Known about the structure:
The structure is a homodimer.
Chain A: H1 8-18, E1 35-40, E2 43-53, H2 54-57, H3 64-80, E3 85-95, H4 101-118, E4 122-129, E5 134-144, E6 159-163, H5 168-178, H6 184-195, H7 201-210, E7 213-218, H8 223-234, E8 237-240, H9 247-255, H10 260-266, E9 274-278, H11 283-292, E10 297-304, E11 308-311, E12 322-323, E13 327-328
Parallel strand pairs in A: 3-4, 8-11
Antiparallel strand pairs in A: 1-2, 2-5, 3-5, 6-9, 6-10, 7-9, 8-10, 12-13
Helix pairs in contact in A: 3-4, 3-7, 5-6, 7-11
Amino acid sequence: xxxxxxxxxxxxxxxxxxxxxxxxxxxxxxxxxxxxxxxxxxxxxxxxxxxxxxxxxxxxxxxxxxxxxxxxxxxxxxxxxxxxxxxxxxxxxxxxxxxxxxxxxxxxxxxxxxxxxxxxxxxxxxxxxxxxxxxxxxxxxxxxxxxxxxxxxxxxxxxxxxxxxxxxxxxxxxxxxxxxxxxxxxxxxxxxxxxxxxxxxxxxxxxxxxxxxxxxxxxxxxxxxxxxxxxxxxxxxxxxxxxxxxxxxxxxxxxxxxxxxxxxxxxxxxxxxxxxxxxxxxxxxxxxxxxxxxxxxxxxxxxxxxxxxxxxxxxxxxxxxxxxxxxxxxxxxx
Amino acid sequence: xxxxxxxxxxxxxxxxxxxxxxxxxxxxxxxxxxxxxxxxxxxxxxxxxxxxxxxxxxxxxxxxxxxxxxxxxxxxxxxxxxxxxxxxxxxxxxxxxxxxxxxxxxxxxxxxxxxxxxxxxxxxxxxxxxxxxxxxxxxxxxxxxxxxxxxxxxxxxxxxxxxxxxxxxxxxxxxxxxxxxxxxxxxxxxxxxxxxxxxxxxxxxxxxxxxxxxxxxxxxxxxxxxxxxxxxxxxxxxxxxxxxxxxxxxxxxxxxxxxxxxxxxxxxxxxxxxxxxxxxxxxxxxxxxxxxxxxxxxxxxxxxxxxxxxxxxxxxxxxxxxxxxxxxxxxxxx
Lengths: 334, 334
């Protein structure tokens, strides 16, 4: 059977069934994108790796410098969602030997930019000639046991929240791949967000420090998939009341005859906002903490008994979006 | 300028000149393949990443299971050479979507084998579709400050030693790429060593525990390049008296009209033996320690003032062998 018939999600399940779970690791292989393991007393290493491949991940018009920056963002985002501070980065790069030195230098500059931006150095790397360019980043973060926010922990009654707004990258894909036209200002805003996204590092560390967040992950796989993952690993259902969609995105979506909610749920990804759950009694604490950073967030729904993710009018939110090996599942072709 | 005109060594220099050195990291970006950074008091994280790419690294006849095993060995070897114990592995894998599930399962089994073999779990990973298969492994190791063996530290008067024997992989390349014929037993031995090599983990930890090793690295880049690297980063010269070459390898090399010394120095690589220096007064301690593991090692020469690497009859050992992007430098084509 070909990998394209299987898809990333199932492959991760297969990998997790073959590999053995480290008994000291607390987030769960195949459950969480990151891993956390005690190093000394209650000091934990939080680790993650994420790879960007040119043919799959480099966007039209994106520079190699931005691509490298984004590779680091994807990693920082995942450990920020666990409440860990970046401690060291490593990069393994494959690059065709016919490429120009400029490309390599751009990648290094992107690593340097992101390293300054997140306050974490690249301490090592490997370099190989390959048939296509890829950049695999591994990040090591540190935090204390009681600061770690896992994917598991959400309980019925908890509020479901998300930082920032969702939908910019969905619109960016529509502009880049489906020829949607928007005014120059909006085009610049959405492309900047997808070319060189920033991870919510300070927000993740702050959320962890509140002690009231019951689960957390980023929405880099797309909102619909992320919500379904959160529901699934916690054995709960999630009911969504509202999604904070930027006005410009809603406006353009409607102009093209699409429901903004669908756009935000299914057509995006690579959006490095944090999705988290909190008990209602802790909401005020989260509000105070995030407002000090100037970070807006929204309560988008709540956790309930049951399984699956639903919109308030009862429609099911399916776990679809982009998936490696199979591509967009049931992507709208309008 | 194309990368193929530049070569891996110069690219690493360029990378090191663009990226900033982490002030807390003690091994040196671009100096050592591994990085070491304090985590808590004198407890250090030792980190390394190594990537294998199918078109460059997969040998004829090598299984995907062995390829994945070897990717882990390359990583374990580098942190063992620093005296650190493996603590966690992460894998970032790219694989074409037209590949069969069997290939993916083989890779996972190779990771599982190596994980058991080195007593270290795979705690996380990422998976992407890509135009060619690659497997980037990152390893995190732990050790204490006074146990770390860097590449820097060799002083004139120190003895230069190597574990095991050198030359099996050189012969393997000759068999696989130049059509050399050898008897079945020898063929099996050399191919096994290059298909599924083992890292000198216990030996590295033991050497570190002696406290008398002044510098250490593995010889995975080939003996000539490794010796030159060691001389260069220490600003010393190295004089080589003898190289422990397996009898079978010498015999076959001579039959093909080649000097066994040349074969061992320039035609190999991916040999995971440890190259280390020790003060003459510490030699006995190293002998006792390694003999308890049943590990043979040889004193192959000594460190002197000056620069460069030389054989005892005065011939210079050049820093040539396999280098990414440019391939074999001045490889014999006999």
